[in-house]
Amino acid sequence: MDIKVTLVLVIFNLGFAYGFFEGIYCGVDNCYDVLNVTRESTKEEITKAYRKLARKHHPDVHKTAEAKAEASEKFTKLAAAYEILRDDEQRKDYNYMLDNPDEVYRHYYHYYRRRYAPKVDVRIVIVITITVISGIQYWACLSKYNEAIDYFLTIPKYRIKATEIAKDEGLLDHSAANRKKNRFKSKDEIRQEEERVLRKIIEEKMDIKGAYAKPKITDVLWIQLFLLPITIFNWIYFQIRWIYKFSICKEEYGDEEFEYLIRKNMSLSKSQYDALDADEKLEYLELELWDKDKFKTWKQEKDDEMRAKLAESGVAKRYRRWKKKGGPGQITFLDD
């Protein structure tokens, strides 16, 4: 038993000393020896040696089942060795393994990392991902915009106004001559044509802002990334200009600066603030909400007002009654 253990250890240590490990690269065989080449052989010489041996040991060349099985095993080793040595990165890792047989775990890690790593260039993946996100982003904004236009078409006030504009511009003509001209069209076709006219007028006349605004190509991720250096430069320039004008030179704020401070206090982006009504913006300016103390007082009043409304709402009253009767522990057969 001791002799057998000693032999196993000797064989294992020999393999370890020469950097051959089962399960990675060519196993206990030397990839260079499998192809009858040396470490100094060029890629062309390795390819030439592989093709020569592949023709010789291809299973189809042999006739008997035993010869085919032996050739198939040899051919598999040749293919594995060629795959490793023809790739510069794998060959570099393999040579490092031969020179540093003691770093066992590092060799396993590098082998399986390269073997199972994605073969696609990461840059291509990033480009495709950004493109898909940009497309989805633009499509979502366009869908929201179309929803807003469809909604305005259902509101009588806007529909009547659009109809009047269409008649004034001659886009809708209900005269006898026009009815005679459209006599071969069905009622559905005439109605769809009128809807297209009204929709176009609403699109041109309505200034929709905020989340339902008409999408711009400059809002998609690709363009935003492209314009990122300019955006950063403009932000730095704005901060320096602000400090110089109002902190160093002590200049007075204008309406633009007051609105910026209001937006900052209210945590609104420029697009969100622009979506507000003109009367609402004027009210904020008149209340001097650019002042932090005045803004806090105004905010507290709004919060108290909202809480009072909620306290008087039917939902809040039902909730208080429900809590008073036992809350989640009670059993009831009522719908509300």
TrEMBL record:
One CC-aspect GO term: endoplasmic reticulum membrane
Signal peptide annotation: none
SMART domains: DnaJ (SM00271)
Regions that span the bilayer: 120-140, 220-238
Main location: membrane
Residue ranges annotated for the J domain, each copy included: 30-98
Gene3D superfamilies for the chain: DnaJ domain
GO biological process, one term: protein folding
Keyword terms of this UniProt record: Chaperone, Membrane, Transmembrane, Transmembrane helix
UniProt cross-references to InterPro entries, sorted A to Z: DnaJ_domain, DnaJ_domain_CS, DNAJC25-like, J_dom_sf
One Pfam family of this chain: DnaJ
Keyword Magnesium tagged: no
Annotated compartments: Membrane
Topological type in the membrane: Multi-pass membrane protein
PANTHER family on file: DNAJ HOMOLOG SUBFAMILY C MEMBER 25
Family membership noted in the UniProt record: Belongs to the DNAJC25 family.
The protein's name: J domain-containing protein
Lineage: Eukaryota, Metazoa, Ecdysozoa, Arthropoda, Chelicerata
